[in-house]
Amino acid sequence: MLPPTEEKLATIHIASFISSSLLGAGLLSLPRNVGEKVGTPDGWVSVLITGLLFMLIVYVMGKLCAFYPGETIYQYSEKIVGKGLGWIFNLFITFYFLIQAGILVRLMSEVTKMYLLFDTPIQITIGLFLMVVIYLVFGGIYPIASLFLFILPITMVILIIVLFLSLKTFDIKQLRPVLGLGIMPIFKGIIPSTPVYAGIEVILIISASMKDVQRAGRASVAGLIIPILVYTMVMVVVVGSLSIAGISHYLWPTLDMIRSFEIRGLIFQRFETLFLAIWLLQIFVTIVIVFYGVVLGLSQTFGKKINGFIFGMLPVVYVLSLIPKNVNEVMKWSDFVNTLSLILYGITFLLLLLTIVIRKKSRRNIYLESSEMEKMMNEDVSLR
């Protein structure tokens, strides 16, 4: 069951939920991942097109949620495909969230160690970070949504400031010629762009707490607009500053671009620490929601209280985060999670189709029963 809450989520909560869930790890690695595949300065077009495709996907998810107000995907999946297949799907999505949580925690600790806490073991960083995560998860969905709504404007203000100041190293010639090698390189960048939009599936969980679930699709699309604009801007600014050839030499191109300049006379002469601060906030909120997805899924699938699963899954996420030996292995795991997300989107589309078919069949049966009843009543009247 959902943790008890007296307040329901408004449309703005849902939009901020979607935006906050997506503005995480992709801020650092997106330019390199897409740029290497595209091979031209047109990677920003790939990111933009992928974002528009995900608008359609998240709208489909919202329409599915609208058929089952007050319920999460873990509850209505069994109504659609039966208890057996419903359990399998529930465990699949729970596994997806679990692996994602482990990877994000490890990524957070690696970046923190590389740029902030050089001598602190990642085991300590991971442990302390997870303690903060479960503290917020215990509060339930409304406190989580309220925190996301508070953090998102701060993140956007700092991101806009940092990207604007990065124009000091920006050269528009690095983005030319547009479509110099045609449109085919753009399609090569679509798959590498998809990981940054992984996170839209949270609508399948949080819609159960909405005041008006009929607006789930539109609220999700609205929330997706901010990440699309941010990631497109990041691609443009980073490639324009480091060049398409230069970004392949950096593990985290966005961060290295910010480190490449300083502005004297301001409170902050270098901005990587400020950027890392808001990035850590965003990675934190992403981990919170995926961890919440894990424990909620187990709770609703097995019909047990959520608190036990919160404590039980904490060491599991901790161990999973330590399995990758280095950053390269973390990236390989990320590719695996991306594959799982694409499978999840396909299954969600099938669930919507099945729901529509079931609803039409149900309405048809009701109509036939009503017609049969009316016919019997007419015959009875005629006999009298």
From TrEMBL:
It comes from the Bacteria. GO terms for cellular component: membrane. It is a multi-pass membrane protein. The chain crosses the membrane at residues 12-31, 43-64, 84-104, 116-138, 144-167, 219-252, 274-294, 306-324, 336-358. InterPro entries: Spore_GerAB (IPR004761). Pfam families: Spore_permease (PF03845). Keywords: Germination, Membrane, Transmembrane, Transmembrane helix, Transport. Its main location: membrane. Belongs to the amino acid-polyamine-organocation (APC) superfamily. Spore germination protein (SGP) (TC 2.A.3.9) family. NCBIfam families: 2A0309. This is Spore gernimation protein. It comes from Thermoflavimicrobium daqui.
